[in-house]
Amino acid sequence: MSSPTLRSLLQLPAEPAPLSKSALILIDCQNTYREGVMQLEGVEPALAECSRLLTRARAAGTPVIHIRHDAGPGSPYDVTAPIGQISDPVAPAGDEKVITKTLPSAFAGTDLDAELKRLGVTDVVLAGFMTHVCINSTARAAFSHGYRPTVVAAGTATRSIPDPSGGDVPAAALHTASLAALSDIFAIVVSDNSKVPT
After folding, report:
1. Which residues have a Cβ under 8 Å from the Cβ of 104 and sit 6 or more positions away?
2. Catalytic option among 29, 50, 78, 101
3. Is 29 one of the annotated active-site residues of the chain?
4. How many angstroms separate the CA atoms of 11 and 13, rounded?
5. Which of 2, 46, 61, 90 has the fewest C-beta atoms lying within 10 Å of its C-beta?
6. What is the torsion angle, in degrees rounded to the nearest 10, for the CA atoms of residue 104, residue 69, residue 101 and residue 122?
7. pLDDT digits (tens, 9 = 90+) for 31-77
8. Is position 134 annotated as part of the catalytic site?
9. Which residues in the chain come in under a pLDDT of 70?
10. What is the pTM for the complete model shown?
11. What pLDDT is attached to residue 1?
12. Is-catalytic flag, 28?
């Protein structure tokens, strides 16, 4: 029998807020993760899910914020090079805000918190890459800043990483464990965008 989540013990919300009353934050949906050394397992289906979520958000009038990571020239996160650009399926449109970060959390050293306060939203929907790093860090930071984050699992992906005790942690296991850790207290985790009401 599973243990109760901290969310349930603390009587935190179990269902996501409607898209129309939230802000959508797409995190690091960059070409970085589609090819080369940082290519993620399952990245293309996850990016397609991000695109579907973005289409719904735009139709609902939801504020959209695009986050991109910049690690400087020559890196896989070089925002001045094609590899570092936000991927075409979720490219910013119109006046959608783009925030550049240099740390895993989209709140660290950026104006994301100020922008969300300006928008007057307390619920945020997160998708993007990587599940165990920037999605995890941003969801935890959102929670600590007093926001109510929802993470769309199908719109995230990651890669296998070395196990410090030897071997590798498979991408699927890392993805699942990262989402489980978030859902214990920090965020509502839903399987796909259809579980977020309009």
Report:
1. 133, 134, 136, 137, 138
2. 101
3. no
4. 7
5. 2
6. -70
7. 999 999 999 999 999 999 999 999 999 999 999 999 999 999 999 99
8. yes
9. none
10. 0.97
11. 73
12. yes
